[in-house]
Amino acid sequence: MSEKVTPRGLQRMKDEGRKIVGVVAWDYQIARIVDRAGVELVSVGDTVGVNLWGHSNPFEVTMDEMVVVARAVRRGVERALVSVDFPFGPLQEGTDSAVRAAVRFVKEAGVDLVKLDGAADFPEAVEAITRAGIPVFAQFGITPQTALRYGVEYHAIPSSADQVPEEMKDAMIAEAKRLEDAGAVLLNFTNSGPVVGAAVAEAVSVPVVGGFGGGPWLDGRMRMAHAAIGYAASNLDDPTKTYANVARTTLEAITAYATDVRAARQVAGGVPVPPAI
C-alpha cells in the first residue's frame, strides 16, 4: 500500500496539477474497497440518510448516527483521508457546539477531517475548529443545507440546471476566500459549473473539489460510491449510466438463490448439504 494521504499531500496535488479522487462511503466493506482502489479522500456523507436509510431529507440524520457510520468507514480505510459530514445542527447552534462536535468525531470515530456544509456563514467556527487542531473540509455553493437560499428545492440528485448562476461568480469567490482565510484545508464547491467553478479554483490556493455539478475545471471530484456502482434499487429500471449495475446483479443473484431453495438444491457458498439417503 502506498504512502498515507495527508492534507498537505492534497495541497501538493493541486500545486502539481494532479486531480484528487474522492468518494462518499457509508460502510466498512465499501470503505475497504475504495481505499484499495487508491482514492485520496473518503467522505462519510450525511447523504446516508436519504440514500441508504430512506429518509425524506438529509436533516433527519443525527450526530449519534454519523458517529456510528464514521466509525465503520474509519475501520475500513488505511491509506486515504477520512472526512465526516456534520449533520444539520451543531454548526448552526454556534461555535462552541461546532467545536464539541468536531472533537467528538475525532475522539470517537478517528476521522482526519470534518466537513461543514454552509461553512462560509460560520467562519468563526472554521477558525475555532482549526485552532483545536482539526482540519476542516468546507462545503459551499448549492448544497443540501443551503439549497433553499438559492430557490432550489432539495432533492437527492440535483440536475445540471441547478449549477450556481454565473452572475454569482464574485460572491462564490468571496465565500471560498473567506473559508480559506478561516483555515479550511479543502473546499467542496457543490454544483459549481464550468465558469464559476474554474474561477473559484483559480482564486484560492487550497484544493477545490466537487460532487454534483463538478467537473475537470476543479482540482478533483467527489462521487458517492453507491452511485458509481449502481447500488440503488432505482438502477434496476433507470438507464442512468454508472460504472456497474450492482442492483441488477443483486436482483439476479437473489432470484437464483430463491430458485435453488425452492428446488431443494445446494445454495452457492452455503454449508454443503449431504445428499439424501
Characteristic terms for this protein:
8 strands, single chain, alpha/beta, eight-stranded parallel barrel, 10 helices, 14% strand, 277 residues
Summary, kept brief:
The chain is an alpha/beta fold and 277 residues long. The chain is built from 10 helices and 8 strands. α5 links the parallel β3 and β4 (113-117).
Structural write-up:
It is a single chain. The protein has helices spanning 7-15, 28-36, 48-51, 63-76, 95-109, 123-131, 169-182, 194-203, 225-228, 246-262; strands at residues 20-24, 41-44, 81-85, 113-117, 136-141, 186-190, 208-210, 220-224. The protein has 277 residues and is α/β, with parallel strands linked by helices. An 8-stranded parallel β-barrel has the order 1-2-3-4-5-6-7-8, surrounded by 7 helices. The longest helix has 17 residues, at 246-262.
Low-confidence stretches: none
Write the H/E string, N to C.
Answer: HEHEHHEHEHEHEHEEHH
- Count of individual beta strands: 8
Can you count the helices?
Answer: 10
The overall average pLDDT, rounded, is 91
Distance between the termini: 51 Å
- The value of Rg in angstroms is 20 Å
Major sheet characteristics: 8 strands, parallel, barrel
Spatial order of the strands forming the largest sheet: 1-2-3-4-5-6-7-8
Globular, elongated, flat, extended or rod-shaped: what is the shape?
globular
User: What kind of assembly state do the chains in view correspond to?
Assistant: single chain
Q: How much of the polypeptide forms β-strand, as a percent range?
A: 5-15%
> How would you classify the helix and strand content by structural class?
alpha/beta
Percent range of helical residues: 25-40%
